[in-house]
Design brief:
heterodimer; A: 229 residues; alpha/beta; Nitrile Hydratase, Chain A; two-stranded parallel ribbon; two-stranded parallel sheet; B: 99 residues; SH3 type barrels; five-stranded antiparallel β-sheet; 5 strands
Chain lengths: 229, 99
């Protein structure tokens, strides 16, 4: 089949603007007009908020895997223990923005319980530790279906559990924010914290994947049939 | 003081969905078990109106439901569960019929 640029439809700007986009624009413009913050403040804050990725969460999990005392503290008080790796949930606004959280809880996977997170009411997500949520996490499709058909949904991500493993869905409908602490896979004995953190990818902390020894967020698995070579 | 203790069986009230409640329709009328306490905070019914400082605060609870109790034709396994948080006003002790 020949490729021709004529096949492409012209790019068209979407005319649809949601109620929330209008509300955001109105409040932003009013705030700037009244001198609450400047346009540059707003741009810088957006740039910062959008640059937060999942590396904080990876660090928390890797540290917990190698340090049982840290793990105890993390499971007992997630918000406070985050400060040990330089994450302050109240920074920089003092009230928890960019995530309207109150408390942060880490959910530990065990051989008998697999945790997975969702927010059916909106798209609450532990942003200070995982950054912005993936697009699919915010879709009504994921939000509706995960609570109703969790095994089918995680199977679509390639994850399957036998009948003796409890799949536990956490719907963050109030002020708590959650992150999954996956199990440390076999074959990682003697790894450094940095090596361990590299396999704790975003999806393993949402609970739609589990860490693989040869799979980081930036390198494909080695057994992909050699397609990449 | 909290009205419910860990391990208590509670039923979510099947109350109105008018205004902002943050209590999902799919758990209303269903029975689960209290598995954790959460600190008291302003209920969403008040916070939604900007009443952060003078809003009513209430204890919150993590309630664990068996998936098979939430969905009549649940296709996963018996042991699967779902956890979510409820303010005290939304919970009542589970009746004998629910135990």
């Amino acid at each position: 089949m020949t490729h021709s640029h004529d096949d492409h439809a012209p790019i068209q700007a979407s005319e649809e603007v949601s109620e929330f986009e209008i509300l955001e624009t109105a409040i932003r413009e009013l705030s700037i007009e009244h001198g609450l913050f400047s346009r540059e403040d707003h741009r810088r804050f957006s740039e910062w908020a959008e640059s937060v990725g999942p590396s904080g969460g990876s660090k928390l999990v890797a540290k917990a895997w190698v340090d049982p005392e840290f793990k105890k503290r993390l499971l007992a008080d997630g918000t406070e223990t985050c400060k040990e790796v330089g994450i302050d949930w109240r920074d920089p606004t003092g009230s928890g923005t960019p995530s309207d959280y109150t408390y942060f809880y880490v959910l530990e996977n065990t051989p008998k319980v697999h945790n997975v997170i969702v927010c059916t009411l909106c798209s609450c997500y532990p942003r200070p530790v995982l950054g912005m949520s993936p697009d699919w996490y915010r879709t009504p499709n994921y939000r509706r279906r995960l609570v109703r058909w969790p095994r089918e949904v995680i199977a679509e991500f390639g994850l399957h559990f036998p009948s003796d493993v409890e799949v536990r869905v956490h719907d963050s409908n109030q002020k708590s924010r959650f992150m999954v602490m996956p199990m440390r896979p076999e074959g990682t004995e003697g790894w450094s914290e940095e090596q361990l953190a590299s396999i704790v990818t975003r999806d393993t902390m949402i609970g739609v994947a589990v860490p693989q020894v040869d799979w980081t967020a930036t390198t494909p698995p080695s057994d992909n049939g050699g397609a990449a070579r | 003081m909290t009205k419910f203790e860990i391990g208590d069986r509670v039923t979510v009230k099947d109350a109105t969905s008018m205004f902002h409640t943050r209590t999902q329709a799919f758990i209303r009328g269903h029975t689960g078990v209290v598995v954790e306490h959460r600190p008291a905070w302003v209920i969403p019914e008040d916070e939604a109106w900007g009443r952060v400082d003078d809003g009513r605060t209430e204890p919150f609870y993590v309630v664990r439901f068996q998936q098979t109790d939430l969905w009549p034709r649940y296709t996963g396994y018996e042991i699967d569960t779902l956890e979510t948080e409820c303010s005290e006003r939304w919970l009542e002790p589970a009746g004998e019929a629910d135990t």
